[in-house]
From TrEMBL:
Name the UniProt record assigns to this protein: Hydrogenase expression/formation protein HypD
Iron in keyword set: yes
Entry superkingdom: Bacteria
Positions of the UniProt region annotated as Disordered: 365-385
Length: 385
């Protein structure tokens, strides 16, 4: 807490709020890309403290939420196999597949375990040589180095009973897809601080030049977020474009060369499907050919899945910033953390989970149905397969 206090200082936050209010002259829509930023914004009520001219919308910055339903179903199928130990971070276990989730597999006798690092799986694999250990490798660029290290170590140490089920997605292509959509209304972005600490922000410079928008790389504490919003609004008001780095204490323009080198050694860029959005070209990672024996999809030859999305869930529109969680008629009613209709309600970085955790479902329930904005027929996914 010693190093967080100055970024949670109420006086500093109020000063930034007043500065934003004094500066803004027209309406601006800003998207925070990272799910961790969304939770901080909702937790501290930052979006409600801002002047009405500044609207924050939530982007596809939750890797669990954008993991394709087909891959969730494949994970469930693999976890159900004999002699498999299936490992995952905790929030993946409650993400609903077409008919069940990984907790159901565990309750039915499957060996499903929560781990805190992919490297834990190597130890489990060494302790269980007659079983295959599969890690559900989900994440943005932030978690890619650790997952790459696990695969690299497995190859180096000859741990052949280890594999990953990879769902790695990349932030810049998602931002570009949002900006190129005919439904886009985002005029500026708060860039994802943790992702940029690994990858730097050189890739974002191409985006601001092409789409003539500002991007401010931002941290996660209240003062971080308010300063990022202040810088973004200032650039919008002055007609400036470019990448600004509010999170300089953790982010450098070039990022971490060591982490990037490890990622490039193990993974290569590929087209990737995003749940609720569609396929985005060159927006994910897959294992390189020399590491493909550690690919769980190939090792288990899981079949193509016939997936069934909930007809009530509008998480795809929420992930695109078109709607917010409390616009959904099912939010806080048919859809709760105990009975989720979509991943955005159960992931630790999901926007719906943030709104529910910090009580906004109460206001949603108190509002009449006429006050809520139902999904419109013209609100279609950004891209389709």
């Amino acid at each position: 807490m010693k190093y967080q206090a100055e970024y949670r200082d109420a006086a500093a936050a109020k000063k930034l709020l007043h500065a934003i209010a004094d500066m803004v002259t027209q309406r601006w829509t800003i998207m925070e890309v990272c799910g961790g930023q969304t939770h901080s914004i909702v937790r501290y009520g930052i979006d409600e403290l801002l002047p009405k001219q500044v609207e924050l919308v939530h982007g596809p910055g939750c890797p669990v939420c954008v993991t394709p339903l087909e891959l969730i179903d494949k994970a469930i199928e693999i976890a159900s196999c004999h002699n498999v130990i299936f490992c995952s971070f905790g929030d993946m276990l409650r993400v609903p597949g077409s008919r069940r989730d990984l907790f159901d597999v565990k309750a039915s006798g499957g060996d499903v375990r929560i781990v805190y690092s992919p490297l834990d799986c190597l130890k489990i694999a060494e302790q269980n040589p007659n079983q295959t250990v599969v890690f559900f490798a989900v994440g943005f660029e932030t978690t890619a180095p650790a997952n790459a290290m696990a695969v690299w170590q497995a190859k180096k140490r000859g741990i052949e009973n280890f594999a990953i089920l990879a769902s790695h997605v990349l932030v810049p292509p998602a931002i570009e897809t949002i900006l190129s959509s005919p439904t886009n209304r985002v005029q500026g972005f708060l860039g994802p601080g943790h992702v940029c600490s690994v990858m730097g922000y050189e890739e974002y410079e191409r985006l601001v030049d092409r789409y003539q928008i500002p991007i401010v790389v931002t941290g996660f504490e209240p003062v971080d977020l308010l300063e990022g919003i202040y810088r973004c609004v200032r650039m919008l008001e002055q007609g400036e474009i470019g990448v600004d780095n509010q999170y300089a204490r953790a982010v450098q323009r070039e990022g971490s060369h060591a982490a990037q080198g490890l990622i490039a050694e193990v993974f290569e860029v590929t087209d990737c499907k995003w749940r609720g959005i569609g396929t985005i070209p060159r927006s994910g990672y897959r294992l390189r050919s020399e590491y493909q024996r550690f690919d769980a999809e190939q090792r288990f030859a899981v079949s193509q899945m016939q997936v069934l999305e909930s007809s009530q869930c509008i998480s795809g529109l929420i992930l695109q910033g078109i709607h917010k969680p409390n616009d959904c008629p099912a939010f806080g009613k048919e859809c709760t953390p105990e009975h989720p209709l979509g991943a955005t309600m159960v992931s630790s970085e999901g926007a719906c989970a943030a709104y529910y955790s910090y009580g906004r479902f109460l206001r949603s329930q108190q509002a009449s149905s006429s006050e809520r904005v139902p999904p419109k027929s013209e609100d279609v996914p950004i891209s389709a397969d």
